[in-house]
Amino acid sequence: MFWCIVIPLGNGRLGAQVLGQVPEEVIILNEDRIWSGSLNDPDNKNCSKALPAFREYVWQDDLYNAQATADAECMATPISQQVYQTAGNLSLATSHSGIISNYNHSLDFTTAISTTTYAYDGVQYTRTAFASHPDNVIVIRMSANTTGLISFNASFETPMSIPVSATFSANGGNLTMTGQGTAMYGLPGSINFVVTAEFTVSGTMAEVKATSDVTPTLSISNADEALIVIAIDTNYVRYNDLSADPHEKVTQTLANVRGKTFNDMLQTHVEDHSSLFGRVNISLGIPSSNTFLPTNIRKNLEDGPDADQDIFALYAQYGRYLGIASSRKTEPSNLQGIWNQVLSPDWGSKHTININQQMNSWFAEPLNVAETLDPLWSLISDVAERGKLDALETYNISRGWVCHHNTGIWRDSAPIDAAFYGFWPYAPAWLLQHMYEHYAFNPDPGSSFLKVTAYPLMKSLSEFYMDFLVEAPLDLEPNGHIVPNPSMSPEHGIGNYNDTNVSLTYGQSVPVLFALHGCSLLRDLFNHTAEFATILGVDSEFAANLSMMHDRLIPFRIGSLGQIQEWARDYDSNGPFTHISQLYGLFPGAQIDPRFNETLAHAANVSLLLRGDSSAGWPTAWRANLFARLLQGETAYYYMTRLISRYSYDNLWSINSVFQIDGNFGVFSGSSAVAEMILQSHNGEIHLLPAIPSSWTQGSASGLRARGGFTLDIIWSGGVLSSAMLTSTLGTFTRVRYNGTAIDLSVQRNGSVILKLSDFQ
């Protein structure tokens, strides 16, 4: 399985998977806006008329007919969304079919450079590759330690239909592939793209010949060195504008770098990448000879991760690397980041926004690469545009906007797949939590992000939910609570009604503000929106109405098994499952906190134990985060070891049924897993080493960010804090906790304070 061996390269828009094969190297190529289909209006115009009947079924606990009504009257047309697609492959075929030795296939995180080396017939061959963000190209150099021996045939291949969806040409020193995203689910393909690889060779005997016998091919022979520069672009401007000329864009990109040497482009690339990646350093445990082994061996050592503690630091940095490579300026990373080799990937490689897209974003703030969230802000803004019509046509609500559990390049917002999965209008509340966190990590009240981007979107979304919430019948909720109806726990069934597994009810724990456990998405949204209104000095009456509404919402409920109740009714559906959305309030939210409410923390722990382990990467990473928030370092470490040893490929990509990137981001993201074990900063405190496992007896982390506008460098030894340096970007007050003791600090703008163990004794 090639997922195991590929090295992923990316500049945020272009992706390349380097297989490292001999004799034929294959580079799988992606551009993040090559998708199937075209723009359409998927909203079901019947839904708003059917909602009263749907809600009545829910009140009567007739969940079979409730779900059947939603399936019949509320789902999108087509029922499935469009998918992310590959451009195709670049093949570099040599004649090296004999015995290969001294083979190495590696990736340097610090420079984002892939290197493949091997010896053949007494000659050492080297392939070096990177994806440059500043120059907007993928660069490959093929060289050897003996002159005149670089010879190979280069050609494009694609799974798209030829010549219907793709054509090839070879001319001079260029190979070009022209294509179009395919038709899918009844919608014609409309995203046109061009891929051009420009070949430059050196050497007195070097030749480049173009042939077109069957497949257009460039034959390179007798070169000292070959330089390949790849540009890819599309006609996409935004979801409703496909007016760009991909030929013109590719031509201009190549013209901009023509004349630059390999070393020129390499230096520009490394400086750019290092400016982001170099902000954070992490070391865990004591380096040993195992530290320098290949990852396929390191992850499977006989003594497990205990034999190689620093693999957790490597994994954490890998998440940062993947984020930088797959999310800069254009599209946010999708289910597979930016790397996909087929036309119809599992789950469409879409932006799944009932947990996965959020996991893709957790790492960015604390791991000091907040710039990788810029594409997410653009996606949310676009979805909000389309979601206004969805709110009106699906729910007959004229204020605000909405979307459901998936979106993609066309920014679709309607419910898809089936009501069991898709009739969940709470995804935007979860997405906008990231906007609040973006401000929390750099709380500058004068920022344009707060005033121009975050607050308008949060206010508009809050208006939708204010009109969406309904008063529950008094025989169900005698205290006059207002609840969301419909509601569900993402992808988790309540049980069988008429031999059908159902998920829809009212008052589920994730969407409801104060619903069942008081840590819901809507509570965070309403509270944060009101907070932003106060900071900006606007909309005081609106903020007061938000506060009044959340006082009428269902409080925490602890179920019959001692668990955080997942629904307003205590349904018997608490067993093993991947999703554990009812604990959003524990992580990534912060309203269940074992430091301040042991009762709720205990109930959250019961919920986790009932859910059990998972047999995939992303839910395992999620559990590691949750247990870190419960300050259970050993249990978080247990899930981290499972994630690396059981649910990672040899190249450390995360395993679901296929590669799924959110498992990698979930490791060291948001306030997650390894980061949560080293540093937490919610609820007004910076908590040092809150969940360090006994195996991490010593370590250090520099450049981590904390809420309130702080950057921290932390060192510990023998499981005990040695020092922590806090640097404030804004000059603010904070409280710092270590080992049960909290102290108050005021730090000047751009000033630093160094804390020692003695400060907490």
TrEMBL record:
Q: What keywords were assigned to this record?
A: Glycosidase, Hydrolase
GO MF annotation, one: alpha-L-fucosidase activity
Glycosyl hydrolase family 95 catalytic domain: residues covered? 262-677
Ranges where the Alpha fucosidase A-like C-terminal domain occurs: 680-751
Gene3D superfamilies with a match to the protein in the record: 1.50.10.10
Q: SUPFAM superfamilies, per this entry?
A: Six-hairpin glycosidases
Ranges for domain Glycosyl hydrolase family 95 N-terminal come to 7-238
BP term (GO), one: carbohydrate metabolic process
Claim: Secreted is one of the keywords in the record: no
What is the designated name of this protein? Six-hairpin glycosidase-like protein
